[in-house]
Amino acid sequence: MIDFRPFYQQIATSNLSAWLETLPLQLKRWEKQTHGEYAKWAKVIDFLPQLSAERIDLKQAVRAESDTPLSEGQRQRLIYHLKQLMPWRKGPYHLHGVHIDCEWRSDFKWERVLPHLAPLRDRTVLDVGCGSGYHMWRMLGEGAATVIGIDPTELFLCQFEAVRKLLNNDRRANLIPLGIEEMQALGVFDTVFSMGVLYHRKSPLDHLTQLRSQLRPGGELVLETLVVEGDVNTVLVPADRYAKMKNVYFIPSVDCLINWLQKTGFHNVRCVDVATTSLQEQRKTEWLENESLIDFLDPQDQSKTVEGYPAPQRAVILANK
Questions:
Q1: What residues form the annotated binding site?
Q2: Binding of carboxy-S-adenosyl-L-methionine: at which residues (predicted)?
Q3: 95 near 23, Cβ under 8 Å?
Q4: pTM value?
Q5: CATH value at residue 253
Q6: Domain that holds residue 251
């Protein structure tokens, strides 16, 4: 099982030390109710070889390379172990000659977001709903001092720890298996990311308030979410599913979303990017057994989902506390 004690030691002498009042007990409770496959997934990390990477690139990609390439047999064994952690949704990763071609080209999103951010150098960053942690590594590539991701999904935690092991056990990034609603209001993060989360929340204003409570005064929120066309009063509330997802509750227009952020106390709110999700950005690969975007769109009209709603369009909104 994954040991969180090194993380506790890390934050004990930092401005995150107050988290130790609640976090260890929360994670003990979490361990008692984990997914039935968690033990199997955690063992995969133990089975991964201890490999030393002489070259690590987190600036242009998430890549680790050794001076001594793996033999084909070693590479196939590494692929075998990593495929025990499928589906791999966010990536890609290039690790010791193995290309994990994930469902999402998350580097596309990062390239849209990065030019607009306050510089991440030396910042303490929180990534809410971080998945397997792809963007966390890219944040380190931009010079962030500490990156903490939170996501309650056990598979994502094990994927993150597998990648960490293949990146020379880099401890500057950590994934904690909690939801944002379980975090105490720390109010210390320089930058908080929430990408691909808001539309999964039954109460979006509560989510925005929770994000704000984690920021220091002047800190920056990076919010990326589904949006629809419309004015300040436009919100799509899917009757059942949206793009075959049953846990989509509210999809606002950009103007409506800006209004929500202002109502929850943010200022300097601005939309910096709007993009329609392409079939190149989200697609089936050999690292994903499930359906993907092509299956979620109307085969006769790809501007609509199979339910008849507007096809996925995503906006990036920045705001400050």
A1: 90, 104, 109, 129, 151-153, 180-181, 195, 199, 314
A2: 90, 104, 109, 129, 151-153, 180-181, 195, 199, 314
A3: no
A4: 0.97
A5: 3.40.50.150
A6: 35-320
Binding site residue list for carboxy-S-adenosyl-L-methionine: 90, 104, 109, 129, 151-153, 180-181, 195, 199, 314
Helix and strand tally (H, E) in the chain?
A: 10, 17
Domain assignment of residue 16, yes or no:
no
Cα–Cα–Cα angle for 243, 248, 249, rounded to 5 degrees: 140
For residue 144, CA distances in Å to 35, 93, 94, 125, 195 come to 32, 19, 21, 7, 18
Tokens describing residue 292: 């993907």
**Cα 234 to Cα 253: distance, rounded to the nearest angstrom:** 6
Rounded Cα–Cα distance for residues 303 and 313 (Å):
10
How many structural domains are present in the chain? 1
CA dihedral of residues 106, 288, 242, 180 (deg, nearest 10):
-60
Q: What is the pLDDT along the chain (321 residues), one digit of tens a residue?
A: 899 999 999 999 999 999 999 999 999 999 999 999 999 999 999 999 999 999 999 999 999 999 999 999 999 999 999 999 999 999 999 999 999 999 999 999 999 999 999 999 999 999 999 999 999 999 999 999 999 999 999 999 999 999 999 999 999 999 999 999 999 999 999 999 999 999 999 999 999 999 999 999 999 999 999 999 999 999 999 999 999 999 999 999 999 999 999 999 999 999 999 999 999 999 999 999 899 999 999 999 999 999 999 999 999 999 999
- Evaluate whether residue 82 is within a structural domain: yes
Whether residue 302 contacts residue 276, with contact meaning beta carbons closer than 8 Å, is answered with no
Distance from the Cα of residue 310 to its chain's centroid: 24
Residue 79 resides in a domain: yes
Mind giving me the DSSP string for 277-298? PPTTTB---TT--S--HHHHEE
